Amino acid sequence: MFLNDYLSKNCKEKDLILVLKNLAKAAIQISKTIKKVKKNGTESVIFKTKNSDGDIQKPLDILSDEILVNFMKMSPVSAYASEEQEGYLNFKNKNNLIVFADPLDGSSNIDVNVSIGTIFSIMSKNNLPLDSAFSQEGKKQKSSGFFVYGPQTTLFITVGKGTALFALDESNEIFTLIDEKIIIPKTTSEFAINSAYKRFWDPRTSKYIQNCQEGDEGPRKKNFGMRWVGSLVADASRILIRGGIFLYPADRRIKYKEGRLRLTYEANPVAFLVEQAGGKAINGEDNILNVKVNNVHQRSPLIFGSSEEVLEFKNS
Ligand code: F6P
Ligand code: MN
User: Where are the beta strands (DSSP E) in 150-240?
Assistant: First the structure.
């Protein structure tokens, strides 16, 4: 089955289908842009600017955002918020859908040929002024997903009827179904966290990770493995396919006291996909999809993955 067939089968909203098809076209263009070899060296030597957050912004981040903006302007979308834009872009029309995006997730992996991706989330404006529309909780998402530019270009997508996985057939540029209903295994013995920040963690995170590391000699009485790619899309991709738990807690660093990941275009879309695949996603206490949005660029702690393991963390 191809992406278009899946959308016709699982989604009755014409506008939503159009937006999703255009996001897929944008992703194909982004993946081609990433694959282009620059004659004068790597992307990063060409120019570096800073985004509103002070992070180094590389040309590919900007190019990916531009590609998405162009495709969203051609879609039945009234406004677009992205990590690379201040606030949101108002397309000044009467369309009903709004789009949130992280155009190129995994910035530290862009120059080193490690998987990166594009994350998106789509909501209805629900007749709200745009400021309020962009502050709707994650449970209002109509669809979310992410593309991974890795060994294969893949797409995890939900329109609220489970989570499906597609891979791009590069010979004809068609996303082809790999799995119509992804189920995250309930149990796991694999965790993902950047342990370099251990000294900044809260006591619960420290204890939980210590228990995992003690393996069959500790209270968990089983051995764990650890994987951390450092691109949310790649770590989420692994967890959606074979289970695991991902933790990016709030920590004592001033910049990340609310967590590092962005609620509306990282945590929310991943949480929707994870829930639709039978997993759980929380900010430590609450379901991510119920977290109040005060600012479209706000950060949130994010813990997600195999349901039993997320509960183990939550109740610890
Ligand atoms: O978009 C933020 C991001 O690059 C995610 O893709 C990733 O999960 C995280 O940051 C990695 O953060 P750190 O560099 O602190 O490990
Ligand atoms: Mn990101």
Answer: 153-158, 163-169, 174-179, 190-192, 225-226
